[in-house]
Amino acid sequence: MGRLILVDILPDGNLFYRVHGTKLAEQLGQELTGKYLTDLADLQLRAAIRSEYALVAARRAPMVFRRRRHYGNRGSYDTERIVLPLSHGGNSVDQALSLADWLPETLKPALAAPTPIGSLIA
Q1: Cα 100 from Cα 69, distance rounded (Å)
Q2: Percentage helix, strand, coil, to 5, in the chain?
Q3: Which homologous superfamily is 4-121 in?
Q4: Which residue in 19, 22, 8, 18 sits closest to 85, CA to CA?
Q5: Tell me, what's the pLDDT at 75?
Q6: Strand order from edge to edge, sheet including 63-70
Q7: What pLDDT was estimated at residue 59?
């Protein structure tokens, strides 16, 4: 579970981290389990994460994100994340499950935009 994330997507767009993997916390330098996205110190990273989850919730479809993420004094890393939308009532996305990893720069090209899962399978 080191790279797993389970969040509640709140009506105001904030996220509540039910699970934030230990490997991710080490990389980020901040544990988020039991905390809100607004507790994340890095404002730029917070905005990027919020927009990605909002896009998944709006599309109601799994998506893959490949981006260069900046972690303050920890440096920059190419990351790949799959985000799966979840719904308790079936009408709106209120949770998401994701798995994140860091990529060597030569492994995969960066995606210019978030990518729906179906376009990667075809």
Answers
A1: 12
A2: 30, 35, 35
A3: PAS domain (3.30.450.20)
A4: 8
A5: 66
A6: 15-20, 4-9, 95-103, 76-86, 63-70, 115-116
A7: 93
What is the rounded distance in angstroms from the CA atom of residue 66 to the CA atom of residue 5? 16
Q: Copy the structure tokens of residue 10.
A: 């709140």
**What are the extents of the domains in the chain?**
4-121
Q: Which residue has the tokens 């997507």?
A: 9
* Rounded Cα–Cα distance for residues 118 and 36 (Å): 30
The pTM (predicted TM-score) of the whole model is: 0.80
Residue 40: both structure tokens together: 């994340």
11 within 8 A of 23, measured Cβ to Cβ: no
Among left, alpha and beta (phi > 0; psi -120 to 50; other), residue 91 is alpha
pLDDT, tens digit only, all 122 positions of the chain = 789 999 999 999 999 999 999 988 887 788 999 999 999 988 888 998 999 999 999 999 999 988 776 666 666 777 888 999 999 888 899 999 999 887 655 444 455 555 555 555 44
